[in-house]
Amino acid sequence: MRKFIIPVIAAVGFILAIYMVASSNKPVPPAMPVAQPAVPPFKTFIAGAGMIEAATENISIGAPVAGIVTDIYVQIGDYVKAGQPLFKIDDRDLQAQASVRKADVEQVQAKLTKLEKLPRPEDVNVAVATLRQSEANLADTQSQLKRFESITQPGAITEEDLSRRRYAVQGAQARVEEAKARLDLLKAGTWQPDIMVAKAELDSAKAQLRAIETDIDRLTVKAPVTSRVLQVKIRPGEFAPANVTSTPLMLLGNVDKLHVRVDIDENDAWRFEPNSPAVAFARGNADIKVDLAYVRTEPYVVPKRSLTGEATERVDTRVLQVIYSFDQSKRPLYVGQLMDVYIKAPPAIEAVDDANAAVSSK
Are 274 and 343 in a shared domain? Predict the structure, then answer.
């Protein structure tokens, strides 16, 4: 039995090994794609990756001054008009400064009003009474001087007393003239240069108040154009930086009409013709097809940023960006969505011949 069992086991193992080797050499069937790729509608074409954006382009909203956000006035999906508030940064310190500036304006305004309304009737009455008192005092001193001068008896009065009376009359006359001058000055009102100085001070105070109010108004960030809120990445209580951030605080755009920004590889840019027909297919559903209308070409070739994730894609290249528009009615297409774009173009050989002919004609 031992002579037969061992060879049988060896033969069975050999047959099993042959079977395993043969079964493992069968070709593995390729995995089916999640979605069938789009079929180019043109015989010769330029292919490019397109990204949907708003007609106004995607507007990244930032903060002019760094600070804590206190209020958010909009939500994602809201339609906003130009100038409508979006969010507000804490402005309590500026409000306190504005209160001080308002008090300064009121103080200078009161000073100017006082100068413009001078003289007060009460002040004029006081000045008139002072003038009458001075005139009465002058009349009294003149009367005394006359009595002294009318004495002719020798030794009745001294020369010193007579001089004192004369000096008293001169002093009384000076006080009358001073009272008259003060009355005339009072009736003339405020000196015009003083009013001009007060007005200049008022203008300066108002300008400082407007500067504070402008800073307060800047802390309420408003929509630059009529658009729709696409993203909100800030919440009340969070700190809003004033510098450029990788993620905008808010993203706005006019989505009444959508655009597609197509990246054309620099190797194919010379084949592009603006008026050539172009179509776009939605990623994941080739049945969603839209005809594109040429809008403009951005003449500056930029580094490629919109990546498709394909293994054969070149990332160290530059692209020509072309903007197309399309009718998105009743189509599930959204801002930021990638699309496969095909632009009709002549074959490379014909394009080279046309380019050479154009250069020769010049």
Answer: yes
Position 4 in a domain: no
Same domain, yes or no: 84 and 223: yes
Tens of pLDDT, residues 314-333: 667 899 999 999 987 767 88
% the chain with pLDDT above 70: 88
Confidence at residue 165, expressed as pLDDT on a 0 to 100 scale: 84
Output the pLDDT for position 362. 53
User: What CATH number corresponds to the domain at position 198?
Assistant: 1.10.287
Burial of 280 (0-12, 13-18, 19+ CB in 10 A): buried
Confidence of residue 341 (pLDDT cuts 50, 70, 90): very high
In the numeric block, which tokens belong to residue 267? 């190797």
Contact by Cβ (8 Å): 55, 194: no
Distance CA 276, CA 110 (A): 73
When divided into structural domains, the chain yields a total of: 3
Q: What CATH number is given to the structural domain containing 81?
A: 2.40.50.100
Within a domain: residue 25? Answer: no
Residue 206, burial from CB neighbour count under 10 angstroms (0-12, 13-18, 19+)? middle
Rounded CA separation 359/346 (Å): 18
pLDDT tens digits, one per residue of 296-312: 999 999 888 766 555 55
- Residue whose structure tokens are 């700190």: 239
Domain encompassing residue 144: 98-214
Residues 260 and 351 in one domain: yes
Would you say 327 and 55 are in contact if contact means Cβ atoms under 8 Å apart?
no
In-domain check, residue 21: no
